[in-house]
Amino acid sequence: MPHPGPDSRWRVPFDGGFRVSRASTHHAFENADERLAAASARLEKLQRKLYADDRFSLLLVFQAMDAAGKDGTIRAVMRGVDPAGCHVTAFKQPSKEELDHDFLWRVNRALPERGRIGIFNRSHYEEVVVVRVHPELLAPQRLDRKEKNLFAERYSSIRDMERHLYRNGTIVLKFWLNVSRDEQRRRFLDRIDDPIARWKFAAGDVEERGHWDAYMEAYQQALNATSRSWAPWYVVPADHKHTMRAIVAETVAETLEALPLKWPLPDKEEEAEMARLRALLQAE
Ligand code: ATP
Ligand code: MG
User: Fold this and answer.
1) CB 89 within 8 A of CB 149
2) Which residue is closest in CA terms to ligand 1's atom 25?
3) pTM, to two decimals
């Protein structure tokens, strides 16, 4: 099985060399809309083949600061894809039941079946990002652990889990939608001013923004620790929404194109049976 994900300029290197400060937030394609449309058309066909082939599954993980455009990107990239073959799970603050299990339990329950595409709108990475920025979130997890090595252990658990998935036919691609702090401010202001977008704005979002540098540091560490050949991260500039969507769609399409997907063709015996049935129908 090939390693997932094209080697593009957006891919986070596997050697820990990624720096948030050097990552572009504002790349723009001239023809972003055409590129998105072309990639979506490819995706539509590829998804049908993935489904028919029924051996691999695809997991797309989306992480981002608020207002980076996760929801819109998921919608745009999956437009045209058969909803029966695709499932989106949004991970919010963990429930009591989720807190009664290890941190990977809830994501494992949401993994895609063979032939399907699973999308995580936020994911297990919250456990090494928001929890790192707000260590008090660890208290309800009731771990008998010191915080010192906890995040290094979590990176290791995540790498192991994702490698296990790769070995067992689940292709994992991870996208960090990288919005600039300025653009986030503009989008928050738009949400406040537009009565129809207002529901998307939560007062707490402004407070989280105050922890920007801590979030960037947590993302940098998490991406460096978990971008690997079997489950790469892509850092996608998010200030231009159309370009961001085109980059994600193209990355997903290229990944599926590299898989050895086959239409399940009938064997000799089935061929013979089909010929018999055809003759029966024609004789009616
Ligand atoms: P929207 O675009 O609708 O705001 P969202 O993904 O931000 O989408 P919210 O309900 O606003 O959804 O926020 C979910 C919140 O849950 C985020 O602040 C996120 O950090 C938090 N969260 C997700 N997973 C965890 C976790 N494992 N531990 C603690 N907090 C988490
Ligand atoms: Mg939110």
Assistant:
1) no
2) 93
3) 0.96
- Provide mean pLDDT across the span 11-16: 98
DSSP state, residue 61: E
Residue 238 near residue 186 (C-beta atoms within 8 A):
no
Q: Which fold has domain 20-283?
A: Rossmann fold (3.40.50)
Q: State which residues have CB under 5 angstroms from ligand 2, the bound ion.
A: 66
CA 193 and chain centroid, separation:
30
Atom of ligand 1 nearest to the CA of 67: 2
Smallest CA separation from ligand 1 atom 28, residue: 93
| Residue-range domain boundaries for the chain | 20-283
Among candidates 46, 101, 98, 99, which has minimal Cα distance to 77? 46
Ligand with smallest separation from the Cα of 89? 1
For CA atoms 157, 163, 169, 174, the dihedral sign is: positive
Chain mean pLDDT for the chain? 96
Span 205-238, pLDDT tens digits: 999 999 999 999 999 999 999 999 999 999 999 9
Best residue among 89, 93, 192 to mutate for probing ligand 1, ranked by most atoms within 8 Å of CB: 93
**pLDDT tens by residue, 79-104:** 989 999 999 999 999 999 999 999 99
